[in-house]
Amino acid sequence: MTQRSRDARREAARARDRNAKRNRWLLPVAGAFIVVVAAVGAILLSGGGSSGGASVRPSGDLASPGASAVGGNAVIAGQPLVAFADPANDAAIGQTIPTVTSPTASIALDGRAKVLLFVAHWCPHCQREVPLIQAWINAGGLPADVDLVTISTGIDPGRPNYPPEAWLAREGWTPPVIVDSTNEVASAYGLSAYPFFVFVNADGTVHERLSGELPTADLAARISQLGR
After folding, report:
1. Is 169 domain-assigned?
2. Rg of the chain taking only CA atoms, in angstroms
3. Same domain assignment for residues 140 and 210
4. Residue 50 placed within a domain
5. pTM value?
6. Res 194: pLDDT
7. Which domain covers residue 110, as residue numbers?
8. In what side-by-side order are the strands of the sheet with 146-152?
9. Average pLDDT of the segment spanning 29-46
10. Are 66 and 153 found together in one domain?
């Protein structure tokens, strides 16, 4: 073996040692990076663009209504709202809401301000919000010239707290309820997470949209800002 061959082998061995040492500290760093990314993703999914805790809408619940669509027994007419993402830059503000007609309740352009509350029976944030809002209603918190309409959506017999009407009855829920069995109403209003609020001025335009739990004091404050 020549001197050159021996030198080449020694250099290759030193290179292998350097790579092994580098890999020993890169692996823990890479693992930590993955954990951080996963944690950030979990935070974002828990309710990005929301007022409080929210349950993200599963992709299987998505629907794509046109100008006129049927959501179970609910008939939807009008232009759908864009998907909700950022309350600080919501393109739906000022847009006229789509109307909804169903056997149990309706969302109409009738000259009255509205709060539309979208809930899912399996959503823990909805389960916390509903009794708080009902207590607020019972205490006279909802103004007489504002309607609160509930949309029961994301309905799934395989998930907890089914059926939703039994859950709402246990809570003594008094606002009218639209049953959105095909999620078409949720899609028409751009819902991205539960619970989901749409505040509507008396002229039928969107004043604000929010997702996540909303304290009743904040709910009252937002209602006071509606065009009535």
Report:
1. yes
2. 26
3. yes
4. no
5. 0.73
6. 96
7. 55-224
8. 177-179, 146-152, 113-119, 196-200, 206-211
9. 38
10. yes
